[in-house]
Design a protein that fits this description.
481 residues; alpha+beta; four-stranded antiparallel sheet; 22% strand
Length: 481
């Protein structure tokens, strides 16, 4: 028994020193471990943590749809003129010849080829009728964006465009951002940039003129939707304070949903013209062509999986924590002892797993070491003063006596109105964590108690660790860079 107790202290001591040496931004950015084995007062047991897949290039898993479907050039073959020189008309598009074809999949092939490969639309031969194209990118899976969306245009950037998102597999759409050379004229919106946004206006839909200039199309080819600049509103300009961002994502559903998609739609409304007037005698100068689309993100697994597999042209999470479904969005059969809940980024850096529990076991779940407050104490120095309150508020929102999410009643206790635990007769304490015999004459080791000698509780271990804070600094500080 003493041997197990010594191992428990050793494991927790190691965790404290590792927390002191940990480079937090890397840990906050990944959450790449779902569970690990630790020694506790019950012996070797599992420590569950929130986890998510690593970010990846998501364009390799999508399907692309064009509307109208016959908008791609080459059928019948066409000859195109250069935008800056109406007399240079030596660009051909022929769908029947591989070297001259420009199908949609060339928006996602490997960049750096010479000559550049790209998708191209038919020319604006029906002017003045608008040249409208919808490009839909569909994953059939919920995706969390982690970096800027970048479109590279080969023909000149559109003078009017809308980027839209769907959260319900294309059944409904919401605008992400409007793009125009003149926002007031095109969309009756004042022009703004992402630098005009604040924490309070982050979810505002803006129109920007930064990516729609026509004449310099040879040099400025990209159109962006700035994800990282929005992250920086909470995490700082170099994203050094991810604690604040994750605290906000964990407690603000609208913010989390803002960066979550199942589909993207690019609505091309007016091609680059390079001038104020369209040359009706040379309409073959006007068309859309895209050489590259970048979408960086990860599968949304509700913090219940650290990997996502692509099988039979479908993405799905490899679920942990006794969860199942493409997004780990429900408990496995026979593991519905309490309602399913998404994992939590808090407390940083390991979060809380919120695992599904067997039907025949009460809501007693071992929290990870961080949630006991050991590693979380290192959070404060990493948080910028301007965002410190948001992180502490985010943590305090989950610090109720019993909320059936994070701090559950132990030993079969029942949570009453999120206020207190109704304990069984053999236990007492705020969370039913103490055997009632501890307060009886002779304690739990008395001959009349009916209890076997007890191991030191987790609470006792915490007191020991807190009491050894000075020793920890002495022993661990020399190894911290």
């Amino acid at each position: 028994m003493r041997f197990h107790f010594a191992l428990t202290l050793q494991a927790l001591w190691t965790g404290v020193c590792q927390a002191a040496m940990q480079h937090y931004p890397a840990a906050w950015g990944h959450y790449d471990v779902c569970k690990s084995q630790i020694y506790s007062d019950e012996g070797l047991t599992w420590d569950y943590m929130a986890c998510q897949p690593e970010a990846a290039d998501m364009t390799q898993y999508l399907k692309v749809y064009l509307d109208p479907p016959n908008i791609t050039c080459g059928d019948p073959p066409e000859t195109y003129c250069a935008l800056e020189n109406p007399y240079m008309c030596n660009n051909e598009c022929d769908a029947s010849t591989e070297e001259l074809a420009h199908p949609p999949e060339l928006m996602f092939d490997i960049e750096g080829r010479n000559p550049t490969t790209f998708w191209q639309s038919t020319s604006w031969k029906k002017y003045p009728k608008a040249l409208l194209v919808n490009i839909t990118l569909s994953w059939n899976k919920t995706i969390e964006l982690t970096d800027d969306i970048v479109l590279t245009f080969e023909s000149g950037r559109p003078e009017q465009m809308v980027l839209e998102k769907s959260l319900d597999y294309g059944r409904s759409w919401q605008p992400y951002q409007f793009y125009a050379t003149d926002c007031l004229d095109a969309f009756t919106m004042e022009p703004k940039t992402v630098q005009d946004l604040t924490q309070h206006t982050l979810l505002d839909i803006i129109c920007t003129e930064d990516y729609s200039r026509g004449y310099v199309w040879k040099y400025d080819k990209t159109v962006r939707f700035e994800i990282k600049d929005r992250f920086a509103l909470f995490a700082g300009p170099r994203l050094h304070n991810m604690a604040s961002l994750y605290g906000q994502l964990d407690t603000t559903k609208n913010l989390r949903d803002f960066f979550t998609i199942t589909d993207l739609r690019i609505r091309l409304l007016r091609p680059a013209t390079g001038a104020t007037m369209v040359d009706e005698n040379n309409l073959s100068r006007y068309f859309y062509a895209i050489s590259d689309i970048k979408v960086q993100g990860r599968c949304k697994c509700n913090l219940h999986a650290n990997s996502c597999v692509y099988d039979k042209e479908k993405l799905s999470c490899e679920c942990e924590h006794n969860t199942t479904g493409p997004d780990c969005g429900r408990c496995k059969r026979n593991y519905q002892g309490r309602a399913w809940s998404a994992g939590s980024y808090l407390p940083i850096p390991k979060g809380t797993a919120n695992i599904c529990i067997p039907n025949n076991i009460g809501p007693v779940i071992r929290q990870n070491v961080s949630s006991l407050g050991v590693a979380n104490r290192k959070e404060a120095p990493q948080v910028a003063l301007s965002t410190t309150p948001s992180v502490h508020v985010a943590n305090s929102k989950r610090a109720r006596v019993c909320d059936n999410e994070l701090l559950r009643c132990q030993n079969g206790g029942v949570c009453v109105n999120n206020l207190h635990c109704n304990c069984p007769s053999a236990y007492t304490g705020l969370q039913c964590e103490k055997p009632r015999c501890e307060s009886e004459l002779g304690g739990c080791r008395g001959s009349d108690s009916g209890q076997a000698p007890l191991m030191p509780s987790s609470f006792t271990l915490l007191l020991l660790l807190l009491g050894s804070a000075l020793l920890r600094e002495i022993l661990c500080w020399p190894t911290v860079l």
